[in-house]
Design brief:
Blueprint lengths: L2 H16 L5 H16 L3 H5 L2 H6 L3 H8 L5 H13 L13 E5 L8 E5 L1 H17 L13 E4 L7 E3 L2 E4 L1 H6 L10 E2 L2 H4 L4 H11 L5 E6 L1 H15 L13 E5 L7 H5 L7 E8 L2 E5 L8 E3 L5 E7 L28 E8 L6 E11 L4 E7 L13 H15 L5 E9 L2 E10 L7 H15 L1 H7 L3 E10 H11 L14 H13 L2
Parallel strand pairs: 1-5, 3-6, 3-7, 7-8, 8-9, 17-18
Antiparallel strand pairs: 1-2, 4-5, 9-10, 10-11, 11-15, 12-13, 13-14, 14-15, 16-17
Helix pairs in contact: 10-11, 13-14, 14-15
Keywords: Coiled coil
Pfam family, one: GH3
Organism: Mesonia aestuariivivens
Length: about 500
């Protein structure tokens, strides 16, 4: 028996048993008051009267009425630019130690999101919560002695004007506790390699030296890494290199669209555990094996609010109309899409991170990611969310027994009339024609979505499909932003961006 593993497992089981049922709404009220109290003397806190909000009978209601919604550009242009001028106490006491670089899924210029020491601590605490939750997954004792492959962005953070900057996964990995360093792979030296392809090459070369029990990272880049390892060692699946691999913690995007292509790289099933880490904080993690939903981390430096995801509340650039209604955690409904807002210990306030979520269990505060506000395709009234697109693609996979882990779509005028043009990524030879796929995809969407069906009878004249190798999607991400880390493929493009993409496809066919 693995003695050390048994001790670790016992400690985790005890921690899990002592964890009492949480009243998530009450925890959120405490978090909001704590945030307001700590930030009341900042420039932001004084401007919006945090002290007065704290004195209100209903603090949550007063907060909603007093503070507007912000997206990144509004926070940057109105407040955060002052931090870069050397000022302190702007939206959070002091100055941030880090900035998380995030180009998101649109635009080529990186956003610089403040990351305070308090946020680093909050991310650590969330990681401990996730590890504690492993007591619910019945992992064997020897699992806790294996190494963990954390595939994120480079930990080679850049120093600038007295702070360090990099992607949030690199910042988090550079702050791992000392006791975890022995378990962490690919290790400090390889993790500091900036070039993604070079880093993956080094991982492949060293792969057989490690006893990997768990993987952690965004699915698309994890798949690419596993393929490189498999090809380098000339084996059939990843378990021939890492026979003790038992778990995968996904993050950043919904795992389900990648499930079929991911499982094809395995030699045996692994436990998949979803997590939700964004540049703005560690938002949620899966705590139960009987569901793939994730529990919001409600007691750890982030206050959440939820705007119903309705077309009339979303502007064309994906931002929110200021008159959009908002719900607290106590007011949300199950199975309804919401735009997620966050106020945090990094000094974001009522901040739109761009994701949409739905509650699968309100009492447990369990959610699933359903899409992005900017990935809402509504040019001709089709009202397609990413969640609906993902489901339609999954139906195609089942219908034709194929794997389509990536896609992008745009509403494009062809001969003066709008069509939805889909580019589907695959790594296999597919015998079904693009015309057959387009017909089936169109039928799936019409059956599942009334608004889409109405649009198809009027302004949306047709659907076209083009199959592309997966490498094209990877190289597009590399050409426009950066491979690996938190980078995700755009699911919906406007016509101008889509033209750039199709030109890129032609050049790289």
């Amino acid at each position: 028996m693995a003695i050390i593993g048994s001790l670790i497992k016992s400690a985790i089981d005890v921690a899990g048993n002592f964890a009492s049922d949480t009243n998530h709404s009450d925890e959120q009220k405490k978090v909001l008051k704590n945030l307001l109290e700590k930030a009341k003397d900042t420039a932001f806190g004084k401007y919006y009267g945090f002290q007065k909000i704290l004195e209100a009978k209903n603090v949550e209601d007063a907060f909603q009425k007093q503070v507007p919604y912000f997206d990144y550009h509004q926070m940057q242009e109105q407040w955060w630019y002052k931090l870069h001028e050397g000022l302190e106490d702007i939206t959070w006491p002091g100055k941030p130690s880090y900035y998380a670089l995030s180009s998101g899924t649109t635009g080529k210029s990186s956003k610089r999101i403040p990351v305070t020491d308090e946020m680093i601590e909050a991310i650590r605490n969330a990681g401990i919560k996730q590890v504690t939750a492993l007591s619910n997954f019945n992992m064997p004792s020897d699992f806790f002695e294996k190494e963990i492959m954390m595939l994120g962005s480079s930990t080679n953070l850049q120093e600038k004007d007295g702070y360090l900057e990099g992607e949030i996964s690199g910042i988090s990995a550079s702050n791992i506790p000392f006791w975890f360093e022995g378990y962490y792979k690919p290790g400090k030296e390889i993790s500091q390699i900036d070039d993604w392809d070079e880093r993956v090459k080094n991982i492949a070369e060293n792969a057989k030296n490690w006893d990997i029990g768990a993987l952690s990272g965004i699915p698309s880049w994890m798949e690419l890494m596993m393929k490189e390892v498999i090809n380098y060692h000339k084996v059939e699946n990843i378990h021939e290199v890492w026979p003790n691999l038992q778990a995968y913690t996904s993050g950043g995007v919904a795992f389900q669209p990648y499930a079929k292509s991911f499982e094809a790289l395995l030699g045996k099933p692994v436990t998949v555990i979803d997590t939700y880490l964004a540049s703005e904080g560690f938002i949620a993690c899966q705590v139960r094996p009987e569901t793939s939903s994730m529990q919001l981390i409600t007691d750890n430096g982030i206050y959440f609010e939820f705007v119903p995801f309705e077309p009339e509340y979303i502007k064309s650039d994906g931002s929110l109309a200021q008159d959009a209604p908002v719900k607290t955690l106590a007011e949300v409904e199950k199975d309804k899409d919401y735009v997620l807002l966050m106020s945090t210990v990094s000094g974001t306030w009522r901040y739109l991170i761009g994701d949409t979520i739905a509650f699968t269990d309100v009492e447990r505060a369990e959610i699933k990611i359903t899409g992005r506000t900017k990935f809402f395709l509504n040019v001709v009234g089709s009202q397609l969310s990413v969640n609906k697109m993902n489901k339609a693609i999954q139906e195609l996979e089942q219908q034709f027994d194929i794997k389509l882990p990536e896609f992008t779509v745009a509403a494009v005028k062809i001969d003066g009339e709008f069509h939805h043009v889909w580019h589907l990524g695959t790594a296999q030879e597919i015998s079904v024609s693009e015309e057959e796929l387009a017909k089936a995809l169109d039928e799936n969407l019409q059956e599942a979505n009334k608004n889409y069906r109405v649009a198809r009878s009027k302004a949306l004249k047709g659907v076209k499909v083009k199959l592309l190798p997966m490498d094209v999607f990877y190289e597009w991400s590399g050409a426009n932003k950066k491979k690996g880390g938190q980078v995700k493929m755009e699911k919906v493009m406007d016509e101008e961006k889509f033209k750039d993409f199709t030109d890129f496809v032609k050049q790289n066919s």
